[in-house]
Amino acid sequence: MLAMKNLTKVFLTDEIKTQALHPFELTINQGEFVSVIGPSGSGKTTFLNIAGLLEEHSEGLYELDGLNVALLSDKKKSAYRNEKIGFVFQSFNLIPELNLYDNVDMPLRYRKFNRQERHQRIMKSLEPVGLACRNEHYPNQLSGGQQQRVAIARAIAGTPSVILADEPTGNLDSKMAEGIMSLLK
Fold first, then answer.
1. d(CA 47, CA 31)
2. What is the tens place of the pLDDT at every residue in 27-77?
């Protein structure tokens, strides 16, 4: 469960104070599917970064599975993020020097999965996004939509309890987008 109460985010640059997130409350229970919508620059990505423990909030309370995230060390946040949260970044964040297989494998290497289990998870996540047969290709050999599907495969491979996706279907055709949304649910 994710619970945010009176959460805010303020960016300070020199003498400029920018309120990226105004106080808000949100509770998301296990199994719920939530979309955050708004115009460009409204704080959606900032919200996702805070929800994913990539960025600190300025004020308010953020609890994830009942834990006050402000009390977690960076090391614990990192471990929690790797085990419990899957990310689909708007810019994909694929490592250009790694093929698809290794890009999906990267977060799994930090978990306690043996090589065989990692292989099964990788192929099981590449299959529904239609890229299992291209697992030896590199990101620069793929279209934007294919790279986005690799990012989705990476997000689901570790079977996280939370998936945070920033425009997960932005580069996909409508049929593929529909399939991906079903997969993420």
1. 19
2. 999 888 888 888 888 999 899 999 999 999 999 999 999 999 999 999 999
